[in-house]
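Worked example 2:
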Amino acid sequence: MIENEIVVEIDGSQHKNWKSYDIDSDFLIPADSFNFELGKSSNLEVLPNYSGKTAVVKINGETVLTGIVDTTHHTISKSGRGFSLNGRDKASILVDCSAPITNVQGLSLLDAVKKIVTPLGIKEVQLKAEKNPTLSKVDIDVGESAWEAIMRCANSAGLHCWFDHKGVLIVGGADYAQPPVATLYCVKESGDTRKNNFVDATLSYDVSQSYSEVTFLAQKHGKDSDNAKHDFKWVYKNEEMELYKPKTIVLGDVENLEALMKQAKKQVSDWQLESFSLTIIVPDHKTQDGTLWQAGQRVHVVCEEYDLDGIFFLIGRRFRLSRSGGTTTELRLKLDGVWTPDAYQAKAEEARKRKGKKGDKASKAKTKKGKKGRKKKEQVEYVGSWELGQ
């Protein structure tokens, strides 16, 4: 029998024994979320309003989310009382609030993010990347949300932002040097089915955001000392794409070609990320050695039905308890080494080169595409005026 103690701490009090819950964490979703439902006896006189309170969610004594209660729901019926909480992690403050009007040009990425979020009460910010580049051209628009502002700062360096389970804002990317936390098996009846340890799996390939050639355009506004403005162009070619699907992206103002390439590569990696999705449902919230599932982990998957045997990146996970499904965890997996490759370039490069024992087709395609794509990128980098076709 699966046993976990799920505790929500609010105002120094602990709340447990939930009827159902849903705790979601995903790098691709701005704010992690939680939902808890508690069936209460009609003898309870007053149900509290926790909206706006800080909540700390713990599983077996380990903190998995620090956030804010958005809504409190009360229901009354003949059979009793219902009580539920909904909330998000501290990213909700940045998503809901407008960014302060400020100038971040000339600041390091970390200092720029701190300057935007500190007035909104976010005090702890950490960098998880090899470099902390200086920002040259990032404008904060009036009315823009603080989350949009810091994401544009991070994306200009090929990085991402998220909050960890303790409520610390992280600016950086994935560390692909960490070993896999578990191996998930699904073998056919002819093999050792005793190893099978997941309930359900869904695999999707998607080329809707894959392109044979992408032309990225940008410009740098001229200064008083300049004779004219400078136009930049960078072309990405995907030799693995059989269809002819060209696309042109205008990125706006950049300081130089390197800045254009950073943003372009981030966009290409995001598209590549969407091309492969593997969702697996497992029982319990822990790996076999007792480690709680967490976004950012790497997982070894062996699935004969899909001809997969390789390491994948856990982009998101969802803890659930329901009357029909029991205690489960949804794992959302992506190709290894694709998300935020500029955070730790050598580690991401090595991760993309790895192949599964069965020669995972998706991994092979990604690795082959990565090698050819990098070679082609070096050949088609341009600086000049695109109106003149240079």
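Residues 359-390 have pLDDT under 50 and may be disordered. The radius of gyration is 24 Å.
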